[in-house]
Design brief:
By secondary structure, the protein is mainly α. The protein folds into two domains: 140 residues, Orthogonal Bundle (Tetracycline Repressor, domain 2), CATH 1.10.357.140; 128 residues. Helix content is 78%, strand content 0%. Helix 1 runs parallel beside helix 13, helix 5 runs antiparallel to helix 6 and helix 7 packs antiparallel against helix 10. The radius of gyration is 19 Å and the shape is flat. The two termini are 25 Å apart. The model has no long low-confidence stretch (mean pLDDT 94).
Amino acid sequence: MLLTAAAGFYLGSGAGVDLPLLWHTLLGTALVAAGTNAFNQVRERDVDARMERTRGRPLPSGRISPRAAAAFAAVISLAGVGYLGARVNMLTAGLAALTLASYVLLYTPLKRRTSLNTLVGAVPGALPIVGGWTAAGGALGPAVVALFWILFLWQLPHFLALAWIYRDDYRRGGLAMLTVEDPDGHATGRMILLYAVALLPVSLVPTLLGVTGSVYFFGALALGLAYAGMSAAMTRAATTPRAWRVFLVSIAYLPALLTLMVLDKVAA
């Protein structure tokens, strides 16, 4: 979240980057992100206790009480939103509050009810780059909408690959993931490829809008083809090694893409 917020701040800046303002933005964003994480763990402590991957977290292991964790989450979340409002601007604070609310109040409970939760969860995951953009004074418009959709679409193959790897854990936890409902992995593989292919043209839009130059354009094209190509293997047979490869490529893709954006930003 901090990486994408920082990239959004740089891309939304004018001729120069206000470093103190960037610091205030990242500090406030970090507090809200930490509070969101903590609230999620408070609400899912029963699920975490049933899953091997998460049973060692502070709440299911009994190292922290739910009351103390909820108080901690509330304090740092409010502090983060308030700090952004006071030291950055109210629009950025509002976006941070929306990130928190959409994650904790929508995404977290929907994980128990419908596999569509993944689409809902991608919204708060894509909002920090928008918050970074507005913190720097960037106006809401087509350019930042393109950045939002890049982050939104990137997350879906990334998460679905991880969900396939840990599908048995999610089943034990009682979470309604696509991978739990898809024993042969055919639907999961198709969705991974669909979102990776959809990301490719969207990732080129910043250049078409004049935010980035040709170096970014061709770099994004190459990265997108690699991401889609790796995702295509999941449609032939959904296996854990192939899912790991998609996940690892997704981990490399995002910082590489953001680095290209920063290095090839077109001067305002």
